[in-house]
Amino acid sequence: MTRKLLLTLAISLTPALFTTACVAADTASPSAPVLKKAQWPFAATEFARFDEPWAMSFLPDGSLLVTEKKGALKHFNVQTRKTATITGVPEVAYGGQGGFGDVLPHPDFAKNQLIYLSYAEEGDGDTRGAAVARARLALAADGSGTLEDLKVIWRQTPKVSGKGHYGHRLAFGPDGKLWITSSERQKFDPAQEMSGNLGKLIRLNDDGSVPADNPFASQGGVAAQVWSLGHRNALGIAFDARGKLWVHEMGPAGGDELNLIERGANYGYPIVSNGSHYDGRDIPDHDTRPEFAAPKVTWTPVISPAGFVIYNGTQFPAWKGSGFIGGLSSKALVRVAFDGDTAREAERFDMGERIREIEQGPDGAIWLLEDGSNGKLLKLTPKA
Q1: How far apart are the C-alpha atoms of 107 and 199, rounded to whole Å?
Q2: Which contiguous run of DSSP H or E holds residue 8?
Q3: Torsion over CA of 42, 43, 49 and 53, rounded to 10 degrees?
């Protein structure tokens, strides 16, 4: 598909974007301090280790569910520090960036015991795509458990070749809707094509059906799932205290992004990016095309963002309202400060290891998962 045709398609699908100019991106402050271990305002305590952990979520009782990329779901008791295995997990397409992805309890988990899982699954003819399933978690007294009545409620369309850029991060919004990041699978143009759901942010009801008030609902089919388009590889999603949705995504060679998500907006990839192609070819920057929504923060050099929370706890009162992003290539914990609809990098903590996932604990502590085959589970608490 030619760039001219892509532009024509973008115009026809998102006319509202051409009537409202978008604010140009801020850049990460070059003066944001990088703090070494001796300068950390927190202590990092190791609680456990996991094999290629990818995501975690707390259950109402304070225990943790942790996914391991090869296809295991673990239940971790924070008090006893014992790990047990959950059976009944779907088979995953492991390899490259693919495998087991996110895990998320239903907002009413205490009543319905429902959890949501994302993962890469095989297709026909050496193709793959992300899927999201819902199941009921039955826990035993020893912490082990099983998934019952598992049902796939969403799939990436189409399945394509390759093993990268699945995305498949999950969140529930204040409206009770299920949000899914669907990355463009390293195929570029599908991020602008409404015939599929690659390179999109997806909004669904909790059973996988499509809300009638989605911006493209009248188009029907896969397009009805879409809330925004033009995304590359979105690996972090969080709502702030105002109910505003923020999503970060990996850029190509440069241009990692933090985006404020607006209804029906087109974020421009691959037509624009503040990075370049890996082979050195230029991609026009966001400020050359104001009809596309621009990121609020960009990073060059990249941080390789993974995992994301917006903190609202009490253990670190000075950080209430701040965002925290895990850095893979940057091996960092990145703190982002928000001011209304603007954002900036405030400081960066050098963790010395790739940080895959971040969660806020029930007591207001910050929990991290390191990436890799022997990834540590760390609890961050204020230094005495």
Answers
A1: 26
A2: helix 3-13
A3: 0
Q: What is the pLDDT along the chain (384 residues), one digit of tens a residue?
A: 333 333 333 333 333 332 233 333 344 444 689 999 999 999 999 999 999 999 999 999 999 999 999 999 999 999 999 999 999 999 999 999 999 999 999 999 999 999 999 999 999 999 999 999 999 999 999 999 999 999 999 999 999 999 999 999 999 999 999 999 999 999 999 999 999 999 999 999 999 999 999 999 999 999 999 999 999 999 999 999 999 999 999 999 999 999 999 999 999 999 999 999 999 999 999 999 999 999 999 999 999 999 999 999 999 999 999 999 999 999 999 999 999 999 999 999 999 999 999 999 999 999 999 999 999 999 999 998
Q: Which of 56, 62, 65, 66 is nearest to 78 (CA)?
A: 62
Are 69 and 53 contacting, i.e. CB atoms less than 8 angstroms apart?
Answer: yes
Q: Compute the distance between CA of residue 160 and CA of residue 174 in angstroms, rounded to an integer.
A: 33
Active-site entry in 106, 165, 168, 286: 165
Q: Considering Cα of 14, then 16, then 21, then 25, what sign does the dihedral take?
A: negative
Q: Which strands, in side-by-side order, build the sheet including 332-339?
A: 34-35, 342-350, 332-339, 323-327, 305-310
Fill in the amino acid letter for 2. T
Tokens of 199: 């390179």
Cβ atoms within 10 Å, residue 5: 11
Among residues 257, 215, 185, 206, the alpha carbon closest in space to that of 22 is found at 257
165 classed as catalytic: yes
What global pTM score does this model have?
0.92
Residue 106 DSSP SS3: coil
Q: How far apart are CA 92 and CA 96, in angstroms?
A: 12
Under DSSP, the state recorded for 87 is E
